[in-house]
What does this fold into?
Amino acid sequence: MKQIFQFDVLIIGSGVAGLACALKLDKNLSIALISKGSLVDGSSWLAQGGIAAVLDEEDSIEAHVDDTLIAGDGLCHKDTVKFVVENGQKTIRWLVDQGVLFTKDKSNKNFHLGQEGGHSFRRILHSADATGKAITRALIQKVKEASNIQIFEEHCAVDLITQEDSTTNRMKCVGSYLLNLKSSEIGLFQAKTVVLASGGASKAYLYTSNPDGASGDGIAMAWRKGCRIANMEFNQFHPTCLFNADAKSSLITEAIRGEGGILLLPNGERFMNKFHKDGELAPRDVVARAIDHEMKRIGCDCLYLDISHRESSFIRESFPNVYEECLKYGIDITKDKIPVVPAAHYTCGGVIVSKDGQTDLSNLYVIGESSFTGLHGANRMASNSLLECLVYAESSASSINYRLPEISLPFEIPQWDESRVIHSDENVVISHNWDELRRFMWDYVGIVRTKKRLLRAANRIELLQNEIQEFYKNFSISRDLIELRNLASVSQLIIKSAQQRKESRGLHYTIDFPDKSKFAKDTILVPVNFAGQEIFISS
Ligand code: FAD
Ligand code: SIN
It folds into this structure.
């Protein structure tokens, strides 16, 4: 007999979005909080630079809104931007109440505000260069203290479960099948409401700053069940990840450039001023493209970031994690230039949601990096993501708290059927396809695109999809297979979206259409089984 679990709310993902949502839900609700690894295996744990909010007296909500709109290159939804930015101060107060310790300035009274690309004021709250750890740690502590939240680590969501709602005739989400990675059993998790907080999809690319689990599972699961997806062509590449054969693309925070770090060619020449008036602090898409351009022009493997002109004690105090990480590879950032390359970093597109995180499918919410709220447009501004995670955790929790009393638990959901599958003795198919997919996404759907490269990628992904589907039907599932299946789906969505955009804008640059068109339009992909609730999303 397989296990059946019942909860009021099932939250899939334990990054900042999932943790905050769990804490903001009413204490009388039973909540399951799921992570496919440990609680800290998402991108949230790795966040470095910080979280943007207007705190400086000279700064203003209007300035933060305008900077976000400019970085988003004409495609942000202005009302979403205002909504998120206006909630900045309240969000920071809540984090402080949860016990998050942000770095203070010299007076030790005010928070120290960092500077990052695209921001016209210092407005980045941070805990040295390990803000993600500071926030996640505090929220995990609170979640562990809450008696209504049950934590399931090492549980990987396979698919969402839907049923027709007899009163509205619409499809509704009623739970998920979860593979217990320790016992290999697939459990049935029923819930009145499901929240996907499962992070981004940058693992679709060979080089990424993201953790291994960033395989777009939530986006793929929602798409399979009929939710619309938007703007997947805008995958952000972070300009500065450590270049070292032994290092796993670890990030070198943009805050280093905020404190005077300069980018250099191998011959020591500075080059960013040729590409943008703000030099090293230009929006991320511009800096990543400039680095890519210079590397291809010169034919070199990496460029360099140099902060060694600042006081050694200042560098070690401000960037202790980057300092230690680089030292592991023999680079002393107080003296040496840091070899850097761009790497896939953030998924600006995702599942279309309303202001309270609702999707096209009744009782399914999506928050955090898996969602598309309209905040980031064609290019996310640094440190706006953690803010978005927290603002939507709050709005989705309020909506669930309000709606839940009307929702009853589903009944008669079939158990996962494994009767027609066998164990595979050919797992090389999975590892081969993982590698192939991530390599052609990097080569053909990367920082600079062409029609020809996208067509090649589209052909390849179709072949891979067929092979993976065949494998999925016949063999018992594993985490690798689940992730590969999802990565193939999101890669196909990225390629399709990129093919539809006949212009260059923000993070999407194609040699065949180098200009920006007059009208900015989202790329919206509608699944064949569109769930049809048509949630309202304004632009
Ligand atoms: P994540 O934190 O990625 O969490 C995803 C969760 O979902 C994990 O618990 C994972 O186990 C779970 N999950 C996924 N799939 C499944 C499944 N199938 N079944 C069960 N569980 C699943 N943004 C900023 O604003 N400021 C920064 O300074 C900053 N720095 C960054 C530095 C790095 C190195 C990276 C990679 C990103 C950074 N970002 C930053 C971006 C930001 O950290 C992320 O966008 C944000 O943390 C995403 O949070 P999330 O809660 O949506 O997802
Ligand atoms: C960084 O610290 O450079 C990452 C910030 C972000 O991705 O928002």
Residues 236-345 form a domain with the Flavocytochrome C3; Chain A, domain 1 fold (CATH 3.90.700.10). The mean pLDDT is 95.
